[in-house]
Automatic annotation (TrEMBL):
One of its GO terms (biological process) is defense response. Residues 146-292 form the NB-ARC domain. InterPro entries: NB-ARC, P-loop_NTPase, Plant_NBS-LRR. Pfam families: NB-ARC (PF00931). Keywords: Plant defense. The keyword Protease does not apply. This is NB-ARC domain-containing protein.
Length: 310
């Protein structure tokens, strides 16, 4: 037999063996890639769970680098899944052509794995909202100033956790407590901020919770009504907010709403036309506001009450 022909056959056989070996190598690399991708995906799931826990607390926001990393992992998961299917279904020569793609994705997955440590934490602190100033108008007259100071002094008493402000429609309860609200928003010594909720006679636990959640920038849309109170209570841990429930016409369970009133924590002001309602809401101190028609902006409480069907 011709020596050159023999050498040609040998070289072809060697080349075929190398290609077969290379095909097996591509499949082995793909298996390794899928395992590494699985590890990164598991890390992504752990980070997502941790973020959900941390972001439950107001004042915590995920870092942009974490968000970008999560999105990058999601994109790579789709690419690896698609490539794995091509390798599984591929034939001899098509597998050889996929080797570069396998190597490229393997490098990207390794880099993402290394960058997914986040030793400095997943979230950053953001300034909690103190609330917007309501600016009800200027206090005029000694009587209204005296009532405002009386409410303020009770509020600053550490023993008073829940304060009731009561009086007939139109005497200025809303006006006075809005002044208290704005001073809390401006003053950073005792409270983190203030949250004013107009309850009205048609109010429900759900509407109160929704207004508080808006103040906290907390999304309750996917939270069952059974758990909304618990979710709010969790979000308020460690916070020192003044809650003002305005125009309360009946008893509401603070436990059900999710408001926790405690020393060195949150406090509550309830305004109502009835002192009985204030007492039912566990207001240990009551301030009676009598008619001050010349000392509040004309129609302020009346307009507010008419809007809520009084």
């Amino acid at each position: 037999m011709d020596v050159n022909k023999v050498l040609g056959i040998a070289r072809h056989a060697i080349s075929l063996v190398q290609k077969v070996s290379k095909v097996h190598g591509v499949k082995a690399k793909m298996d390794s890639l899928e395992i590494n991708m699985g590890m990164v995906s598991a890390r992504k799931a752990d980070i997502n769970f941790q973020l959900e826990q941390e972001e439950r607390r107001p004042g915590k926001k995920r870092k942009k680098e974490v968000d970008f990393w999560m999105q990058s992992v999601g994109s790579l998961e789709d690419q690896v899944h698609e490539l794995g299917r091509n390798v599984e279904e591929g034939h001899f020569f098509s597998l050889l052509m996929l080797e570069d793609q396998v190597n490229g994705l393997a490098t990207q997955v390794d880099k993402l794995h290394d960058k997914g440590r986040f030793d400095s934490g997943l979230t950053m602190d953001v300034k909690p909202a103190r609330g917007y100033e309501l600016r009800p108008g200027e206090l005029v007259g000694q009587a209204s100033q005296t009532r405002r100071d009386e409410i303020w002094d009770c509020l600053m008493n550490e023993e008073v956790l829940c304060l009731g402000v009561w009086g007939q429609t139109g005497v200025g309860k809303t006006f006075l407590t809005k002044h208290i609200h704005d001073q809390i928003v401006q003053d950073r010594t005792r409270f983190d901020g203030a949250c004013f909720v107009t309850v009205s006679q048609e109010g429900t636990v759900g509407t109160i919770q929704t207004d508080i959640a808006h103040h906290l920038k907390l999304d309750l849309t996917e939270v069952s009504s059974v758990y909304r109170g618990a979710r709010l209570k969790e979000a308020l841990q460690g916070r020192k907010l003044l809650f003002i429930l305005d125009d309360v016409g009946k008893y509401y369970s603070l436990e059900e709403v999710g408001i926790v009133i405690e020393r060195n924590g949150c406090k509550l002001i309830v305004t109502s036309r009835s002192n009985d309602v204030c007492e039912q809401m566990n207001c240990r101190e009551l301030v009676h506001v009598t008619t001050l028609p010349q000392e509040i902006p004309q129609g302020l409480d009346e307009v507010s009450n008419l809007r809520h069907g009084h």
